[in-house]
Structures are given as C-alpha cells and as structure tokens.
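P.,

For your records, the input lines for the assembly:
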Amino acid sequence: MLQRKRWRFAILAILPTLAIFAWVRMYPIAETLRLSLHEWNILSKNKPFIGLANFRELFQDQLFLTALVNTSIIAFGVLIVTIPTALVIAALIHHRTRSRFAGFYETSVFIPHVVSLVPAAMAWKWIFDAKLGPLNALLQMFGIPAQAWLFDPVLSVICIIVLCSWQALGYAVLIYLVGFKNLPVSLFEAAKLDGASGIQRFWHVSVPLLKPITLYVSVVTLISAFNVYAQAFVLASDSQGAPGRQVRVLVLDMLENSFRNYRVGYAASEAVVLLAIVLVLTLIQFGLLREKGRS
Amino acid sequence: MRAHRPDLLHFTAARRAALALTAAAFMIPAAASAQTITVWSGYPEMAPFYEHVAASMKDAYPDLKVNVEAIALREHEKRIALGLTSGSAGVTVIELAGSTASRYIENELLPAAPQAVSDFVSDEANFGSFFVEAASRDGTVYGVPLFRGQGSLFYNLDMFEAAGLKEPPKTMEEYTAYADKLTQRDANGNPTVSGWSLRLSGGGQGIAEKFWINLFQYGGSVIEPDGNGKWRANYANEAGRKTLNQYLQNVHVLKTVTPEMPADAEAFERGQTAMFIRESWVIADIAAKAPDLKYATAPLPRGSIGLPTNLYVNAVEGDDAEAAWAFTQAANEAENLVWLLDNVGWLPNRSGVDYTVVTDKVPAYGAFVDYPEDYAFFTLPAIGPIEEVLTRLAAQLTNAYGNPSLADDDAAIDAFLAKAAEETNTILKREGLLAE
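Structure tokens returned:
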C-alpha cells in the first residue's frame, strides 16, 4: 500500500515536467515527422498527404546533397579538431593547476564559448577577408600568396570549421578539466613509480580513463556542429554582396525552403534526415566508446 | 446585526460606484488612445520615412501610435510568413513587393483594399497602370504603391577622367571595354580597384536578379510568359550565353574584377570600384557616407528592372485597420514622397508630384527619371515560385562564376545554361505553371 502511494506521489511529482517535456520536445519532433509526409506551403490551410515524395525529391536535389556533404564535412572537421585539441589544452591547464595563472588560462579558453556568435563571426569575417584581413597579411609576410578564404569552395568550408572549433573548444576544455580533476591520483603515482613519463601517463592513463568524458563531449560537439547555421550565414551574407560564398548547410537549406520557397513539408523532410543522421552517429559513438571502455 | 446591514449595503454600493467611476476614468483615455498600428519594413533605411509619415498624421490622428519595425529583407520575409499565418501580427502595414504578395493574396491572408483606397490607387492621375497592376490581382486592388527599385549605372568621374573616358558606356560590349580600361592593378597585374563591380557571391536571390538585369540588356529574361498564365525558362539561348560569358570574361580572362574584391555600393563609396549597377537608394547612401565622391549616373543600354514595392494591411475592419489604411495613403502625400526621395533615395511611384526640388538639387537622379523614350522595363513575375527559381539559379550562377574553364567555351556555357534552365522548368512544372 505504502509502495503504491510512493509510486503515485513520484508519478504526480514528475508529471508536470514530463508534460512540459512532451509539449516542447516530443510534440515538435512528431509534428515534423508528420509534416515531412505532407505538401504544405505554410500559407495554405490544405496539407495534402504525399507519402515519401518529399524524400524522393530530396535525394535528387543538388542543393540538398551539397548541403548534406558540406554539413557532414564541417561536423566531422569540428569534431576532429576540437576533441584532441581540447584534451591536450585541458591536460596542460590541469598540469598547471597550482599556477597563479590557472584561472587566466581557463577563462581565456572559455571566453569564445560565451561570446555572442554574430559579433564573433563578424570578427572572423574580417580576419578571413582576402583584401583587408590580417590572415592574408600574415601569410604574405612569409611569401605565401593571399587566398580567397571566403569564396574558394574548399577554403570557405575550412573557415567555418575553424570558427566552429574556436567556439566549441572552450566548453570541451571545461568538461575535460572536470574529468581530469576527478581522475584517481593513485593511478598516476603508480605509473610514475613504474617509470612512465608525463606523455606516457597522459596517453596510457588519462586518455582511457577520460573515455566517458570524451563520449559526452564528442556527442555534444557533433550534434552542435551538424546544426551549424549562423556561422555560414554571417560569413557569407551581406546585403551589398561583400565577398563571401554562401556555404550551403542543412539548416540554411531548411530555412530557405521554409520561408523563401514556402515548402515547409519539404523542409521538414530535410529535418527528418538530419535527425536520423545525428541519431545514428550518436548511437555509433555510444557503441564504440562504451565497448572500448569495457575492454 | 440588523442595524449594521444598511450600512454595509450602503458601503458596498458606494464602493461599487467608486470602482465604476475609476474604471470609467481609465476607459475613457483607453478608448481615445486605442489606435495602434505596426509598420513592417524590409529596408532598415526606410524607418525614418515611416516615422516621418506617422508624425505627419498627428493632426488627424492625435492618439495614433505607430510602431515602425524595419529589419533586413530576408528576416522580414520570414516574419511575414510566420506572422500572417499565425495571426499574431495585430493590425500591421506590410511593405512587400507585388511579386511576393501574390502568395499571400492567393491564400486569403491579405484582404482587398477598402473602396476608398482602391479608388485612390486606381485613379490614373495618381499611379500609372504598371504600378496599379503590381498592387492588384484579377482587377482587385490589394495594396497601395509606394516606391520602386530601378537600376542605373553609377560611375566614378575621377576614375573615368584618369582612364581618358569622356562618357558612360552605351552598349554591353562597351561595359567590358570600359571595365578593362578602368581596372587599376598592382605591379603583378592583380586588380586593386575593380573596373566594374559585379555581384558574384553572397546569399539569396540577388545574384540572379543582377544576372537578369544584364541578361535583359541582351534581350533575354530568366523566365518568359506564354500569354496564357504559364511560364518557361528563357536564358538557355544566345542572350544567356552572351551574359554569362561577359561575367566570365571580366572575372577570369580580363580580370577586371575578382570574387574576393570589395563589392557594390560600399566599394564604390570607398573608391574600390569604378562603376556598378544599382538602385537609386545608393544616391542617399553616398550623400551620407561619401559626400565628397565625384560620380554620375547613366541609364542602362536597353532598360531596367522596375520592382514596385507596395503597402498592404492585414485587416479592413475596426479603428486600427482604418488608421492603417489611412497610413498607406498618408505615405503617398506629396510632401512625404518628396521627403522619401530626398532623404532615403528610393523612387516614389506616385505620378503628379513635383520632385524637381530634389532632382534639380541632385543631378544623379537624372538617369532614374530622364531616360530614353524607348527605355524598357521588366519586373519579377507575380507567381508563387519566383523566389525559388531565382534562389536556385543564384546558387548555380555562383558556381559558374567561379569556374574559369567555362570562359570562352560556348559549348560548356550552353551546357551549364541548359542544365540550370531545366531546373527552372522543373520548379515551374511542379507548381503547374510550365508553358508547353
């Protein structure tokens, strides 16, 4: 009887939270799934059911395929750059914990994460500017010719990877630092007694022990990078056509299809594809890192 | 207890009376200041104009509150799509191109104008038929014409003089020849000041609109009507080939301009380009940002885009709606239109207004109002998928402009244009608008 009362109380206590979660999280996802099977121009009251026609069209749409490839390159590029860099920086900061500059190191790495995205992207736009930017000025000092960073199809994607990684790094470092601080000191002392060098201790003790942290950070980084939009928008957009190639990414393509082309059903089908990709990749990451963690 | 009852009743009655009086006191000014309208604009530079119009209505509408919300065009488009469909916009005056408004009118999200407004718009003394048609659908007036985007050539007089050029180019062939002469280069031959600033990159449909303006000079158009309400792509032809090849010649062969060079009005104002094609708002922009710049304007070889922008209201009934429609007409008062031209630079559409006080003062407006008799105009068709057609063409053109192997290769250019035109026709077909 008491058990049942406790259960009832627990369910009643959690119900408001569950209701809010269902309303703001689950309902939009379900609605997006439903819309992806319909043709809807956002203005009309009619939403005819068209089955998988949106998905069939999607995989013949050159702009969508370009956006898919670009987004995937950017997401994995950010992951590849951010995770190892964050791990190394966190290790260096942790190693210098007792230094009076420790707080300064942590703050300076974390600041890009809290800086508002648009002004930060504007600053990077100036850095990458082919004619006026300091990056090309620096390269030319070493005899390297100036590059069209924001127009070249390859370089413009690299620019977005750099900008996203710069922003993601602070958060990843912070989480890794928490991980480092919770590692058992005895293991490092034992390794030291066995003659392991600092690099060996990092590679053979820290990195394996930090796998749960790596899993969390990489999942968050990858999902965030797949949702890249503002960076691509700010680096290219300018009402007066200032140099900048519009790097087509999935979220940008969705917005364009929704509000410029008035094809909300079609945009919803893109959102479903993005959801599926992120879901599959997250499951793969969980599988890989947990399996290796156990072994 | 009985002795107290009347007192209590009396007190309650007194309190009720006091409450009623207080409520009435609050309600009287509330009723008097009930008129509130919002103005949505897609051009931030238009905000002072709408505030000026609101100020001019103070005598007739002393309690009218006008909230002007002017944001960038792309965000404005999203706001309209979400605001009108959700019904959360309130009574709003909406600034919108006629070609874009057609979707909203088709879906009954924008009502027809009240009779008095319709009569004002339809009066030949107020607006030419081109503008009336752009604000109407099937003969019914939905919007009030206000201003238009119209292109002309802007050229730097000092740079022309330095290059020995006495007058602006008159043919598209001359445009390229002039661009070559005007380009300034460093010791390695790389351009430092572009001869002719072309729209080669960026987001949205602007790239395709600019391409269409050049294409029009060669006699082509992005899409053409068949006369029965259907359309087809019209650029996979000689006009399209000449237009695209001119871009490629300038970018890859003559290198009069490169994609990474500063572009457009900003570059012109800083002396980083010698000439470019743009709308009249640049004149006011130059006056504000580069008042010492020596420049002139000239009509284009064949004609220009004429992109009328109208004011719509999302309601017809109620005090607020009445004030909103009055606002659309106040915006077309002669004094306000002269203010618009003088301070913002967009060209007003209303006829019968004396603009000479501005055009005499600023000769650069000459090319926009004194053009040859056979000067032709085109506008974006009022069909649903026009934005998609242009946005997708823009994405294709950006790739073409960056591809040096296309330059001077007619077969490759034709293949590119045929593929792009096929995509345009596919969109039209999907919407049931493709001409046979």
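Two observations worth noting. Chain A touches chain B at residues 41-45, 62-63, 130-132, 148-153, 233, 236-246, 248, 255-256, 258-263 (CB under 8 Å). Residues 169 and 245 of chain A are 25 Å apart (CA to CA).

Regards
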